[in-house]
Design brief:
Largest sheet: 2 strands, antiparallel
Pfam family, one: Glyco_hydro_16
Structural class: little secondary structure
Protein name: GH16 domain-containing protein
Keywords: Glycosidase, Hydrolase
Helix content: 10-25%
GO molecular function, one term: hydrolase activity, hydrolyzing O-glycosyl compounds
GO biological process, one term: carbohydrate metabolic process
Number of strands: 2
C-alpha cells in the first residue's frame, strides 16, 4: 500500500492487490506537488474562486518512507513489510473515506471504461 497523508490523515491510498500480479509499484516513483488551474478536466465543473489568490502551499515536516534504489526492498527491517502496515487501521480508514467523500472530485477510475483499461480500477 502506498499512502499519502497530511498530519497523519490519509488523503490518497494506492493498494497493492496481489491479484493484480507483480510487484507494486513496479518502477521508481517521485512526488510532485503543484497548484494548477482547477477549472480543467479534473475539477468536475467546480470553479476556481480567483478572489482568493495568491494560492500558496507550504511543506513542513515532509518525509518519505521508501526503499532506496538497489536495496533489498523485501527486508523485514522496512516498516512497509510489516503486516500491520499493509492496510489502514480503522481510524485512518474512517478519515480517508470522509476526505474522499468531501474532496475527491475526479479519479480516472470513475471513467466507465477504466475498469477495462486500468487493472487497479477493478479493485476500487
Amino acid at each position: 500500500m502506498i499512502s499519502f497523508s497530511i498530519d497523519g490523515i490519509p488523503i490518497r491510498v494506492f493498494k497493492n492487490y496481489t491479484s493484480m500480479g507483480g510487484r507494486y509499484p513496479s518502477s521508481g516513483m517521485h512526488v510532485l506537488g503543484s497548484i494548477w488551474n482547477g477549472e480543467a478536466w479534473a475539477s468536475d465543473g467546480k470553479k476556481v474562486d480567483w478572489s482568493q489568490v495568491p494560492f500558496q502551499a507550504d511543506y513542513r515536516g515532509f518525509s518519505i518512507l521508501g526503499c532506496p534504489s538497489g536495496s533489498d526492498c523485501d527486508s523485514q527491517s522496512f516498516l512497509w513489510n510489516q503486516p500491520n502496515t499493509w492496510q489502514l487501521n480503522p481510524t485512518q480508514e474512517k478519515f480517508y473515506q470522509l476526505i474522499k467523500s468531501k474532496y475527491l472530485y475526479y479519479t480516472y477510475c470513475s471513467n466507465p471504461n477504466a475498469s477495462q483499461l486500468y487493472k487497479e480500477c477493478q479493485f476500487e
